Amino acid sequence: MTFGVHAPILAIAVPLLGAFALPVFTKLHRSLRDIWAAAVGAFTCAMVITVAVQVFTSGVQVYTLGAASPTASVVQGGFPIRIVLAVDGMSAFMGLISALVGLASLVYSFGFLKEEQGKTLAMTLFFLLWAGMLGMEYTGDMFNFFVFLEVTSIAACSLVGYRTWESAPVEAAFKTMAMYTVGGLLVLLSIGILYGEYGALNIAYLSSKVVGSQLDKIALGLLLGGLLMKAGAVPAHMWAPDAYGEAPAQAAIVLVANTQASLYGLWRVLFTLFVGVLSAPAVGWLVASLGALTILVAVLAAVTQRDLGRLIAYGAVSQIGYMLLGVGVGLAALSSRQDWGLVAMKGGIFHMLNDAATVGLLMLAAGVVRRATGTKDLASLGGLGHDLKWTSGFFLLGVLALAGIPPLNGFASKFLIYESSFRLSPILAAIAVLGSILLLAVFARAFQGAFLGPRLREARPASPAMLAAMGILAAVILAMGLAPGFFVEHLVGPAAEALWRGRDLYLAAVLGG
Amino acid sequence: MIGNLPFVVCMILVGLGLWTLLSRRNLIKLAIGITLIESGVNLFLVALGYVERGVAPIYTYAPPRAKMVLPTPQALTLTSIVIGLATTALMLAFAVVIYRHRGTLDARKIRELRG
Predict the structure, then answer these.
(1) Count of CB contacts below 8 A, A vs B?
(2) Distance from CA of B50 to the nearest CA of A (A)
(3) Does residue A422 fall inside a structural domain?
(4) Directed axis angle between helix A409-424 and helix A426-451, to 10°?
(5) How far does the CA of residue A42 sit from the closest CA of chain B (Å)?
(6) A146 vs B contacts (CB less than 8 Å)
(7) Candidates 1.10.150, 1.10.287, 2.60.40, 2.60.120; correct CATH number of B5-102?
(8) Cα separations (Å) of A185 from A188, A496, B73?
(9) Which of A132, A137, A178, A338 lies most in the core, judged by the most C-beta atoms within 10 Å?
(10) Is residue A106 part of a domain?
């Protein structure tokens, strides 16, 4: 299968080309643009799925840029000279999340965006952001990771603030841009330190050479800080509610997937690059405690919100906490190879997929509310369930899944996290459970306030494209809720294993044994 | 014989930038602070690749058996400068739009998104 070999680079290159060609097609005719966007989206998803199938059936995929054969990445003596894409189980899993969210966002934007309000521009930026996210997830090179990180930063902030005729989105975009840029520069600084020490940028090569010196610890700290800033974990979460709350719905869900791509970078740094030299229990405890703190702070902040968009945004931040908690517990148990460590990793990683689907569904539903009524203020909303029947159903499904009500998907992943974090420390598990309960209370109130009660005003129903996009995410939520075993075994398990004990395979695949 | 001095200077620049971000409230000054951090990091990358008495790493122009400075950090720095240009331009554009809406650049007076 020669074509499949090129799937990783095509998954990045095609949306990139698609983005820049989109305005040209708009000049010719709008329907041409829609056909082009649909074709690019479908092709990218196909490539991501191809990569995932290859990785899950035959192991780590390495693609070498600028060389005829993938084995030419290393010169004699094991020194890597080329830029490589290295896709293991975790990268492939993240690619699937990005593809799912991207697909839903694209379908939604056909019905949601208005031509006179920069539809072409928003779609162009969306494709750029998509390409950047997939690049972050597939690259095997630290500097390329930084470049794709900045591509996503610029595209994401433009998507938040492109509606310059309003003031709030632009202010949110400025705040987000400042946080993203500082985070990105911290990452670049640590990449410089690593290059100065080892003279290479290839993740696998760095991982085989890293010695754990004082400078390495500084580099690790900078990477941790920079990536957590971009992921929106407490105490660097200030940008997240503004950005999610002000961005148009189809962009907000891609922002959520983008924070997950930053988290993926963190997992890659912790579990592949530094795992041999860091003191895993200490760093694991740090990550898990940050996760617990994120859950607590975000949920408490959500209680006081009066705006539907910001309320969902704080819900999204709290979900980042669950991922950090799960994977942090796994890292803390890594050196002793406890079984519950792997369970925690599976929980944290499964939760990334769940979060993308559930928070995505809630944000899309909130977008319908905003479009139908022109406001997201909970005090002035009410009785929307009379007109927006499907949307109310989708929102309720999202609320129940987010809060982790059995048998929905949120329960499956959160249960894995509760069970395993209890083994590390009952306090962490207690915070996680408490967060879930509060979250259910907050979102039940939001649902009741916006959708139930007497009809206050006529609401404009959602267009078919928007319903289809929400339907995609709802179908994924239901599938994961009804058959969590299947997903854990075939998607989450390989991804968690790739981090848990896949480092040697990753190194061997890139450096050629 | 300048030892670690360039690295110290770079870190001072980064520190100044961070201090600007924390202590100033004018949006333009925030952008300047970020540019300072960026310059510090770029200088750091270039300083990493310096080889004592090295020449520019252009193979066809270098005298035979000359020592060359490392080319990779320079390529990285170029990329980073281009990215920095884009981020700075975007931030300043946002600042201009905010000024048009609000008539101020003071971050303390732009309170719509607090809480």
Answers:
(1) 90
(2) 11
(3) yes
(4) 150
(5) 29
(6) 80
(7) 1.10.287
(8) 5, 29, 15
(9) A137
(10) no
